[in-house]
Amino acid sequence: MTLFVLYVLALLDGLLCGARVAMGRSAVIAKHRYYVRAQLRGAIGAQIISTISLAALILAELWSTHREALHADLEAAAGRMLSVFVPYAALVVGNILLRLIPSTDVRSATSVMMLGPLTALRPAVMIIGVFYGIWSTALWETRLLGLFVLALMLGLEFVLNARAARAQAREIDGLT
Amino acid sequence: MLAAWNPAQPEITDLIIQHDPKTLERLPVRKQDVMAVFAGFKNQKALRALNALPDHAGIFDNRVIDRMLISTHWEMQRLAEEFYHGHRVWDLLSRVVATIRAGGYQGKLRVIDVGCGIGYTARWLAAHIPLEAHGIEVVGMDLNSTLIREASRLAAAEHLNCHFLQGDAFSRETSGGVYLSTGVIHHFRSEALREFLRRHEQPETFAFLHYDFQPSFLAPFGSWFFHYLRMRTAIAKHDGVLSAVRAHSADTLVDAARSAVPGFASGIYGAKIWKTPAPRVFHTLLGIRRPLLDEFRRQLGIRLARLGVLR
């Protein structure tokens, strides 16, 4: 269950990363399809990362000489990570839901005062969450896996951003 | 950082693109000349951003400048989207239009977006409002040919009922019933601000709505943080923050409007969030023909609370 919740959060993070890197890179007015595609790319990226992470986890367990202990250790680490990631995700989702209120002031305020700073905090939250998760683990495999997943998650926005920047540069090159 | 916040200096984009005021032809700009301006202000941030721009024999490469300008304006549109700027403009403009109609004018009403850039406001209005039904024609005007081309391309791509022209928004051929702008008026300083406002005094013009940053002690910090998070190009970050620093106070705007265009009742609209002391990021310099004043107040309804002293 813990791993499943982490997987859902990773998908949500990928979705939002996809939207974030697409923002400011299209000047049409009707952007619904543009953002859906961008979010889909982010979610696919997160799915790839999740699959790689799961494969690494399964391999680690298969090759481990103390499989049950590793499994328990991983579960415990993932549980601690959730105690950081879930409140953060709740804040983000809560602010997105606030935008359903049909007030330009409320919507602008959530964007400027909450979603902006929360976006800036994302890398720090990722690092704090993973380190908090692996800090008190007994096994080096758990630490290594945690750091591996952290690198993948931090790399996701970087890769999506580089891809979006290339697409934007190509489009603007065609205009000038 | 503080050197980049000196309001006495111009924005980078004010200098790296120059047009002949008569022919509107693009003029070559010497990199060294622009660098010298910011060196005078010891603005290392601007100098670094300028240094990164390529040149040929000391003259800025226009193609690179244009690319940078387009990407910057795409980013700026994102800010306008986040602030729901289109909704805000229509919220006020619709009441101005209703006032003009109630005042007896039933002809085609031309709304001119002055310094429209890539025309976000005009395109938003065309995309969301049945302009034909309201008898409104929306025209975006800018001196910059690159931005006008891009605005026209974007409007055509979405089949939007608005058009864009390069040139002087206040000329006889293009004069408007309502003038509006976003983030433009702080570019006019002292006497130039009064001269800009004086040009609204045309027989066809009923009103003007100029949206710009609202200065406050916290505005530069907020703007810095927001631009740091949201903007990607160094010049956009630099100019965005400087815009907030250079923004005119409500008193400066209102004093300039009242002295430059006495035929309009002028004031500030939307300075505070609801009835709190918290300032909105943007406020609006509003001017409306004096005979329309009472009707305008009636049209505002509950929004009258957002209106400052209009006289």
Plain-language structure description:
Helices cover 87% and strands 0% of the residues of chain A. With 176 residues, chain A is mainly alpha-helical. Chain A has one domain. In chain A, helix 1 packs parallel to helix 5. Chain B is globular and about 60 Å long. Chain B has two domains: 67 residues, no CATH class; 235 residues, Vaccinia Virus protein VP39 (Rossmann fold). Chain B is 45% helix and 16% strand. With 311 residues, chain B is an alpha/beta fold. In chain B, strands 7-6-5-8-9-11-10 form a seven-stranded mixed beta sheet, sandwiched between helices. A two-stranded antiparallel ribbon of chain B has the order 1-2. A two-stranded antiparallel ribbon of chain B has the order 3-4. Chain B starts with 11 loop residues before the first helix and ends in an 11-residue tail after the last helix. Chains A and B meet through helix 4 and helix 5 of A and helix 4, helix 5, helix 6, helix 8 and helix 10 of B.
Give the spatial strand order of the biggest sheet of chain B: 7-6-5-8-9-11-10
Instruction: Report how far apart the termini of chain A are.
Output: 52 Å
DSSP E strands of chain A, number: 0
Structural class of chain B: alpha/beta
Q: Oligomer, anyone?
A: heterodimer
Integer tally of domains of chain A: 1
Structural class of chain A: mainly alpha
Mean pLDDT of chain A: 94
* Largest interface, C-beta within 8 A: A-B, 25 and 40 residues
CATH topology of the largest domain in chain B: Rossmann fold
Helix tally of chain A equals 5
Instruction: Give me the CATH architecture of the largest domain in chain B, please.
Output: 3-Layer(aba) Sandwich
The best one-word shape of chain B is: globular
